[in-house]
Amino acid sequence: MKELIRLLPYLARYRTKLVWGGIFVTISNICSSIIPRIVGNTIDLIKGSNFSTNDVLISIGIILGLTAGSGLFMFLTRQTIIVASRLIEYDLRQDFLLSIEKQSSSFFQKNSTGSLMAHASNDIGAAREFLGPAIMYSANTITAFTFVMYFMLSLDVNLTLLALVPLPIIAYSVYQIGKKVHVAFRDVQEQFSHLTSHSQETFSGAKIVRSYGREEYESKKFEFLSIDYLKKNVRLAKYQSYFVPIIITLIGLSNLIVLAYGGYEVLNGRATLGKLTQFFIYINMLIWPIAAIGWVTNLVQRAAASTVRLGKIFDIVPEIKDNEQTDNSINNIQGDVEFNNVSLIYNSNNYPAVENLNLKIPKGTSLGIAGGIGSGKSSLINLIPRYYDVSEGNILIDSKNIKQIPLDTLRKNIGLVPQEPFLFSLSIAENIRFGNPSASNEEVEYFSKIAQLHEDVLTFPEKYDTLLGERGITLSGGQKQRLAIARALIKNPSVIILDDALSAIDTQTEEKLIKELNNVMEFRTTIIISHRISTVMRCDNIIVLDSGKIIESGNHNKLLQLNGKYAEMFALQQLEEEIEMM
User: Fold this and answer.
1) What is the pTM of this model?
2) For the ranges 20-24, 193-197, 439-443, which has the lowest average pLDDT?
């Protein structure tokens, strides 16, 4: 099927193993195909007048040897073809992961985690079954059928042709059922994606579900999806169940034809009992290879459906990538950032998240960004590491268009800490070291101290070796943010961006952290987004955003003198602090 052509390059990588697998299965079937001839000749020998015990023993020895040889070479077949399929499965998963990692942020907005997990598990698994068992049993069926037909035709052409009468019926049945299996399996895989997505969201949001008392609703929703998945699987199983009964019935018909015609020939002296016995053995030797046609067809149809689904992911060209503009000689950045008439419009709507923005952030300075929810703060800073590309205008870093800088170089030199950082189910040290895998234990502790996390870590029984749960559930919100800051700092970035990354940290700890941050980032660029004025008030320059536009700009004192939005936010927060102290 044309959908499976995509897998040919993977097969080509391991063609040597596959060729040897073909050789081994051929030898195995040669050995097994000779056995009925030996059995038939031995039966005729016993019925004849020249019967010799020694001849029978020799025949038994040859049969045992051929049986052992057939088994050995079938074992070697599995060791080559199945191992090759596992290696291809590994390559497919690696390529799938690389394809996902290259995608831009918009890709993850369109594809749920559960759906991608279904691709990485079920779809790649289905492709592997085609590349392994399906190819192996196809080779076995072809070679077994070829040799059996050769020996049967050499015995009696007429009896062979009569025995093959049911074959066209088998081929037609397999073709028709195979089409239904293809559609049914595609539906099963799509429903599995929905079920996996819902499960992943429910597990991740278990605390929210409980807090809103929505357990029963989510349980019923999961039950509905599960029942739908069950129905689609039952439908698939129904189609798959037709294969073997049809094939066994038609093989049985072949046996009846052989018995009727062959028996008639034996009774009339035109055939021997040994010859008839050979035919029965050969016909029954075809039971598994022909039955395997149904199973192989099922695997092929499943693989075709899964390959189409995988292809939709592999064929997505990343919206943001290195291109002909990229200057690969750039391997570092200093940190001068400049926005020239920059606008950003997301694909989902026509409303600009950032509009005609002009801004300069000199190397070694700090910029504070304030503004209300939806004012464009996060959208603005997501343009710097090119999580999104500008819709209009351009961004310069070190006087070079950002699109000229290789993505790897750009992102390695930027440390971005989001408000809700993602932590891995690793130790505290490994999470910090994620920013720089070669960092020493001393460096881990040093940057942990800068992030004001070190004293907290010492309270854990395993210190820096403490394992965090999923998404860092072991830590509080403030500890997560401070760990993420340490992780960003340890990569030694030229530009560090804190996207409301101090929101869960108390003011006293925040003040210490900002002071340490200013020291370590003295000659580098710092950008801080915050709802709290106390967080940005010490920055060299502060901008206030509203609807994606800069409405105020200056240092803390200048903005207070303007008596505008910034002054209003500052006064309101001071009032809130006074009320809390009462």
Assistant:
1) 0.66
2) 193-197
